[in-house]
From TrEMBL:
One of its GO terms (cellular component) is cytosol. GO terms for molecular function: RNA binding. It comes from Virgibacillus pantothenticus. Involved in transcription antitermination. Required for transcription of ribosomal RNA (rRNA) genes. Binds specifically to the boxA antiterminator sequence of the ribosomal RNA (rrn) operons. Keywords: RNA-binding, Transcription, Transcription antitermination, Transcription regulation. Belongs to the NusB family. CDD domains: Terminator_NusB. Pfam families: NusB. Gene3D superfamilies: NusB-like (1.10.940.10). This is Transcription antitermination protein NusB.
């Protein structure tokens, strides 16, 4: 699985965790064996879960006229993945993390999601 596919799968897992209030281990049990063994996917999911409070604080600090609770679960999961990569993964350029997040938002969100994600991540990157 390439990193783009791993991000898509991580988005699905983190979205499910967010709306169902589940632990990552329970969600990961339902995956195919080759997906379970993907190191990048596991790093993303476990990293976002581990640093969720810090990531949410970073996102909340850069929101304008929004609160984290008002953000749709899809966009929230995308932001969490991107912020995790930007803050805690050294071998991924920040521009790649932002571009991947915008692409995920354009694919899985509504017509304004990409612009919203770009705006928030750009403020975090300042």
């Amino acid at each position: 699985m390439n990193r783009h596919e791993a991000r898509k799968k991580a988005l699905q897992i983190l979205f499910s965790l967010d709306i169902n209030d589940m632990q990552p281990i329970h969600e990961m049990e339902h995956l195919d064996e080759h997906v379970k063994k993907d190191a990048f996917l596991n790093m993303l999911v476990n990293g976002v879960v581990h640093y969720k409070a810090e990531i949410d604080a970073m996102i909340s600090a850069k929101l304008k006229n929004w609160s984290l609770d008002r953000i749709a679960s899809v966009e929230k999961a995308i932001l969490r993945i991107a912020v995790y990569e930007m803050q805690y993964v050294d071998d991924i350029p920040i521009s790649v993390s932002i571009n991947e997040a915008i692409e995920l938002a354009n694919t899985f969100g509504d017509e304004q999601s990409g612009k919203f994600i770009n705006g928030v991540l750009s403020r975090i990157n300042e």
